[in-house]
Write a structure and sequence with these properties.
Blueprint (H helix, E strand, L loop, with lengths): L2 E12 L6 H6 L1 H6 E7 L2 E10 L2 E10 L3 H12 L4 E7 L3 H5 L1 H11 L5 E6 L11 H10 L4 E4 L8 H16 L4 H21 L3 H13 L8 H24 L3 H15 L1
Parallel strand pairs: 1-4, 1-5, 5-6, 6-7
Antiparallel strand pairs: 2-3, 3-4
Length: about 270
Amino acid sequence: MVTEYSKLFKICLFGDKDVGKETLAKSDFLNRLAVNYMTTTGAEFTFREVEFCGKIIKLHSWIISDDKERFQDLWKGFIKGSYGIILMYDITNAKTLNRLSEWYQLAKNYREDIPILLVGNKLDLEMKRDVSIEQLENFKLNYEISESMEISLETGENVEKMFLNIASMIFSKEKIIEKTLVEIIIWIIDRSIKTKKENLEGKRKLKKLRKFWRKKHFEGTESFEEYLDNQKEIVLNLIEYKNEIVNAKELPEMLKVWEKVKNLLN
């Protein structure tokens, strides 16, 4: 079941005029998926929703004007409060990649560890490519950018993936785990441990457990003693997984453990 995540994450998208920002802001692809669309001085922005790790994540996406003379003083204010940055270039124009260094430095001056996703647009014009793999890797190396991808705003290829990737980077960097979700999972584990421990104690309860074992067609075990050993092992595993849930620092890490827990509870 997909549930809504309460926090809104602001992201900024920088790039030269011709890299496709205007296309992104006005495209049917974006507007079909947008909750809302607005403009302000020097920027156009939309509230995007993407599904990530079983939750709906809201991205407040700011598409920033490249007009240095008119809006440079506003750039710092646009970045303020951002959780992530998308730097976009045109794969058919190498100059648009080199120009990104200015916005990269601006973002780093605001926050050194802010997640940055490097995105090359116009993948549909692969035959006119001007940015080589070597140029791209050198740029990433020089500016210590680890994540990059290519999209086509013309066809929509990888556009949704772009927003999913920046959401994933934000979660990883911010080490965000929904408190309520953790509490629910811990409660389920504790309740299961308590029930299994109670079933394994006392003659009367063991007698009921033996009947349950028979009704369940022996639960894949050849003897009742083997079944009891399995139940004891499940309790120990649940305790171990509970500790992993508590110590998890990222939502994807926690959800991987939860999958293991569900397998034990089935």
